[in-house]
Amino acid sequence: MKILIVDDDPKIRSFVSRGLQESGIECESAEDGETALARLRSEPFDLVLLDVMLPGIQGWDVLATLRRDGRSVPVIWVTARDGVDERVKGLQLGGDDYVVKPFAFAELLARIQAVHRRHALSEVRRVADLEIDPVAGTARRAGRLLDLTRMEYTLLRKLAEHEGRAVSRGELLKSVWGIEFDPGTNVVDVHVRRLRRKLDAPFTLPLIHTVRGSGYRLADHA
After folding, report:
1. How much of the chain, in percent, has pLDDT values that exceed 90?
2. CATH number, span 125-218
């Protein structure tokens, strides 16, 4: 996960950055709304922690601009503005949660993880011409609906969650089949072969790649 912290208070930025990094989360920061918009338009972030009171462009306008641009990145308000009307406004503008300063970092982290999980569960994932819709429970390639079994679809989603990196057979056994140990079966390889016949065989560009000694990777390049 990569998070952008938008706050004009250097102590808050330092405190939150340190906590996120210690939790294994990559983070960057911006001290004003204009810088935040420029960063969000030029590089991908998984979540934004956004203050309301900022120099220049206020937080309200930062979020409103993001949503007008069609950017669905999750946003958690982190602000001292604790009025009910302001909380409602923040959520109506498209915010995903609202945390009032001062706060305990453990609570902020829990809210970050909850928002990130909700977003990941509902977000349509795209890899090249593949589109996975977790809400509809479907996968399409080049606009064509793929006829996948429940297990094949679950396997594809797990590979998509780790797009670009190899997922080991052990990880797949645990997350797809609920098997905590390697029973010496080739169930993963069998299902990957079946998935490839539906996902890759009818198309020119293969998306599932075997990483020798590591597992399988879903990516639009070898």
Report:
1. 75
2. 1.10.10.10
